[in-house]
Amino acid sequence: MLDDFMTRATLAGIGVAFAAAPLGSFVVWRRMAYFGDATAHAAILGVALALALELSIFAGAMAVALAMALTVSALSGRGYAMDTLLGVLAHSALAFGLVAVSFLSGIRIDLMAYLFGDILAVSRGDLGVIWSGAALVVGLIGWRWSRLLTSTLSPDMAHAAGINPRHEQLILTLALAITVAVAIKVVGVLLIAAMLIVPAAAARPLARTPEAMALIAAGIGAASALVGLRAAYVLDTPAGPSIVCVAATAFALTGLYSVARKAR
């Protein structure tokens, strides 16, 4: 079954959707969209370092994404507005990464594949990395679910319950770095944030509980991968952007549904 490239691509898209769904819900609840974008942009620098040092792309992307996320967490609240800090770090990391890639001699690199993904070129080894990373993210979020929810709702309530909100923030940071590393092959660094945010935002009008929102987001993400891949195959369009377009359409439809429901 895994000899078929479309089967591997489909499984890769579903794996990323399952990883991004619970994490994306927290990104939406905490209004961390730009934070996820900054972490994803840093991954291209990790790709360049991994190729230069002959390391795993997954390891390089995750290490730099984690370093970026930790840097943002450490510098926040120290005299810089968060949006300014994220803007500077996100675009600086992407620029340094692109410059670093240009210095790689003797290494053929398809830059567009890392920027926008190359899901159709996913190998069996990539599938193992993607699903292992997805299982790790889901397990991590599931293990800390109630603590993460409490610290998201109210840091004061979390302190009263003996929960350290900063520690829970680090858990989300680690999960975000893993998700960025596993998604880079599927949708690329420029669209990873979209796979985090759009399915979760589309699920919000349909969900009555946080758990339901995470599950619905996973369903929308997986369906977007399936429909987006089929559309890319039929229309001969880029696979990664096609997946995000389908997710964006789902967001528009659920938004219209929410408006219509309120009007009634």
What is the strand and helix layout of this fold?
Blueprint: H1 5-29, H2 33-52, H3 57-75, H4 82-102, H5 111-116, H6 124-143, H7 145-153, H8 155-160, H9 165-183, H10 192-203, H11 210-235, H12 239-263
Helix pairs in contact: 1-6, 1-9, 1-10, 1-11, 2-3, 2-4, 2-9, 2-10, 3-9, 6-9, 7-9, 10-11, 10-12, 11-12
Give a brief description.
It is built from twelve helices and no strands. The protein has 264 residues and is mainly α. It has a single domain (5-190), classed as ABC transporter involved in vitamin B12 uptake, BtuC, CATH 1.10.3470.
Describe what you observe in this structure:
The chain is an all-alpha fold and 264 residues long. It has a single domain, classed as ABC transporter involved in vitamin B12 uptake, BtuC (Orthogonal Bundle), CATH 1.10.3470.10. 79% of the residues lie in helices and 0% in strands. It has twelve helices and no strands. Helix 2 packs antiparallel against helix 10, helix 6 runs antiparallel to helix 9 and helix 11 crosses helix 12. It starts with a helix and ends with a helix. The model has no long low-confidence stretch (mean pLDDT 84).
- Specify Rg, calculated over alpha carbons: 18 Å
Which residues sit in consecutive blocks of at least 5 with pLDDT less than 50?
none
Q: How many domain regions?
A: 1
What is the succession of H and E elements? HHHHHHHHHHHH
CATH class: Mainly Alpha
Distance between the termini: 48 Å
Query: CATH topology, which one?
Result: ABC transporter involved in vitamin B12 uptake, BtuC
Overall pLDDT, averaged?
A: 84
The CATH level-2 architecture is identified as: Orthogonal Bundle
Structural class: mainly alpha
Most strands sheet: none
Q: Roughly what percent helix?
A: over 70%
Please work out how many helical segments DSSP would assign. Answer: 12
Strand content: under 5%
What general outline do the C-alpha atoms trace?
A: globular
